[in-house]
Structures are given as structure tokens and as C-alpha cells.
Design brief:
The protein is an all-alpha fold. Among the domains are: 50 residues, no CATH class; 66 residues, Tetratricopeptide repeat domain (Serine Threonine Protein Phosphatase 5, Tetratricopeptide repeat). The N and C termini lie far apart (67 Å). The N terminus and C terminus are likely disordered. Keywords: TPR repeat. InterPro entries: TPR-like_helical_dom_sf (IPR011990), TPR_rpt (IPR019734).
Length: 181
């Protein structure tokens, strides 16, 4: 049986790299498809910096009606924990584009972080009216209504969630078979 050409070269070379480095390089080649995800993680971490907030505020100063700049100010401010500034920015987006579902969800998150759960519920219900088949909205409604003690309404939204996605978990529980209580 003939020997491989690479095996002869490796055996003849006096300086051979350790086996762990060869495996490491082979592994990096194997998982090359993950590189775009790593880049996206770096891009997403930009939101959580004050430089991003300053950039969005500069664009907003030049173009006060730029929706992307307003939404960016709100998102960056919410990541930095500046709830008042984030709420103002999201409200400005809603004035320019009423009923925008992404903005309503973000505003509900900000208001919920500040502790005003009934107002957050109102924003989530408005977002649900705008896009009734959005699973994220239904899941957040179930969790918020459960926290407010409104289990009947939470059950209704959970039922709608399961109709749209029968395999999904809404509240962290496994879906029960239909015959069990």
C-alpha cells in the first residue's frame, strides 16, 4: 500500500508542529460558516456604547425626522439604561409613524423596566393589534399578564400562541397533551 505524500514530508521534516495546533486550525476551517455570526455579535455590541448614542444623536440633530436615527437613539439609550431618553425617542418615532410594532415593543420594554406594568401592557396590546401573528408579542403578553395576575387573559394569549406555533414554549413549560388537565 503506497504511503501518502504528506506523511512522507511530515516524517522527513525535522520541525513538526504539535498535534493540538493542527487540530485547532482544522477546527477553525470546519466552523468557517460561523464567522458572519461572530461579526454580527460585534455589531450588536455597538448598540451598548455611548459612542453609538452620540452618533445617533448627531444624525438626529441634522435630520430631526429621520426614523432610523430616532429609533437608534431609543435603542442605544435603553441598552445604556437611560430610560427617560429612550422613552422620549420611542414616543417621537410613534408620532412620526403611529402603530410601528417594533417601536411599540421597545417602548413596552422600557416602560416595563421602569416598573409601570399596566402601561407596558397597553403598548403590547397595541403591538398585538398591529401584528396579531407575531409570536414575540404573544409570548410577552402571556408573561406580563401572568405577572399582573390576569391568568385567564394570559391563557387566551397562550392558546393563540400555541395555535401559531404548537412546538414552542411560551412560559417555559412543556406543552401538555390535549387530554391532560
Amino acid at each position: 500500500m503506497p504511503a501518502r505524500a504528506g506523511a512522507c514530508r511530515a516524517a522527513a521534516s525535522p520541525k513538526r508542529e504539535p498535534i493540538w495546533t493542527r487540530r485547532w486550525h482544522a477546527g477553525r476551517r470546519r466552523f468557517r460558516f460561523l464567522r458572519p455570526a461572530w461579526r454580527w455579535r460585534r455589531v450588536c455590541s455597538i448598540w451598548a456604547s455611548s459612542r453609538a448614542l452620540a452618533l445617533f444623536q448627531a444624525v438626529r440633530a441634522e435630520e430631526p425626522t429621520n426614523l432610523l436615527a430616532l429609533f437608534g437613539v431609543g435603542r442605544a439609550a435603553s441598552y445604556l439604561g437611560r430610560w427617560d431618553e429612550a422613552e422620549r425617542a420611542f414616543r417621537a418615532v410613534l408620532e412620526l409613524r403611529p402603530g410601528h410594532v417594533e417601536t411599540l415593543l421597545a417602548l413596552a420594554q422600557v416602560v416595563e423596566q421602569r416598573g409601570d406594568l399596566p402601561r407596558a401592557l397597553g403598548y403590547l396590546e397595541e403591538a398585538e393589534r398591529g401584528d396579531p401573528k407575531r409570536l414575540e408579542t404573544l409570548s410577552r403578553l402571556v408573561k406580563l399578564l401572568s405577572a399582573l395576575g390576569q391568568s385567564e387573559r394570559a391563557g387566551q394569549y397562550e392558546q393563540r400562541y400555541r395555535e401559531l406555533d404548537p412546538t414552542g414554549k411560551v412560559t417555559g413549560r412543556e406543552p401538555q397533551p390535549s387530554g391532560t388537565p
